[in-house]
Amino acid sequence: MNRMLPSLYILLALFLWSSLGVIVKLSGVAVHVLIFYSVIVSLIVQGIILSRKTYRKEFPGLKLLQYPLILGAASLINTFTYYLAFKHTTIANAVLTHYTAPVIVAFLAPLFLKERVTRPIIISIAIASAGLWIMLNGFSFNEGDALGITAGLVSGFAYAVVVILIRIYTQSFNPVVLAFFSNAVIAILLAPFVREFPVNALWSFLVMGIVHSTIAPILYFKGLRYVSAGRTAVFGYIEPVIAIIFGIIFLSELPGKGSIIGGLLIIFSGYLTLREGK
Predict the structure, then answer these.
(1) What is the pLDDT of residue 45?
(2) In principle, which of 40, 124, 168, 178 could form an S-S bond with 234, CB 3.0–4.6 Å?
(3) Alpha-helical segments (H) within 18-65
């Protein structure tokens, strides 16, 4: 496989996920309801894909099912706290706190994945981290934002765990199969808490179920089969930049100068990582 292609899969997935904040804010429904119905849509789409004969042999045995179960539980914590952050603070605050994850991943990867951290990766992480902190110094929030920022930090840690788990599990699972079982766990865990179906938010369920819970995860899992967790961590810094741009375009949430300068540094770090990957 072309060495650049897996990196492009991850970048495209991150671009799609960058629009999450806008969708969550415009949906107007509770976080757990939004996650549940979007996951149901994704399960229907993924079920259709997996009904093909070529995928049937990819289903894991009972002994291996524990791994998608663990990933599903971690993904639910990550998704729930991330969406909660969007609900209770600005998109900029939510994504920037969430993206403490790449730094955590960079430190966990050598420990759990035995991956060698190269000098270009370290430099890229340093530049991206500097950009992130410049953006964080541009925060303007009040007490009402505290819940959203706290949720964003929790989601950042949970996301780091998810990246590590995916990097491990994609070596043994087909990306579509892994996404399907992970989403099934999320649906089962949330089902007891959902007692309504807000028809007015149907559009958001469809968009999130097809784009954010099916297409993006499959691309991401596929890319992680060949891209190291460290490099993926640096790529991840691009998502908050794009998310803030979407916030400006669709919600008129204007960032400060710190966000702009920090965003440019983050983009530059991603460029360095792509060059190192060639």
Answers:
(1) 93
(2) 124
(3) 20-27, 31-50, 53-56
Rounded-to-integer distance, Cα 76 and Cα 187, Å = 9
User: What are the tokens at 101?
Assistant: 């994850």
**CA distances from residue 187 to 79, 182, 242 in whole angstroms, order as listed:** 12, 9, 28
Structural contact between residues 209 and 39, judged by C-beta atoms closer than 8 angstroms? yes
**Residue whose structure tokens are 């770090």:** 269
Confidence category of residue 133, pLDDT binned at 50, 70, 90: confident
CB atoms within 10 A of CB 256: 14
- Nearby residues of 205 by Cβ (< 8 Å), 6 or more positions away: 34, 37, 38, 40, 41
- Report which secondary-structure segment, H or E, holds 186: helix 175-190
Burial class (CB in 10 A: 0-12, 13-18, 19+), 150: middle
Domains of the chain, by residue range, sit at 4-277
Q: Report DSSP letters for 11-23, one per residue.
A: HHHHHHHTTHHHH
Residue type, 141: F
3-class state of residue 245 by DSSP: helix
Q: What is the pLDDT of residues 72-128, one digit of tens each?
A: 999 999 999 999 999 988 888 788 778 777 677 767 777 776 767 677 777 877 887
192 CB neighbour count, 10 Å cutoff: 7
Buried b (16+ CB within 10 A) or exposed e, 211-224: bbbbbbbbbbbbbb
Average pLDDT for residues 150-169, to the nearest whole number?
85
Q: How far apart are CA 41 and CA 46, in angstroms?
A: 9
Token reading at 254: 């204007």
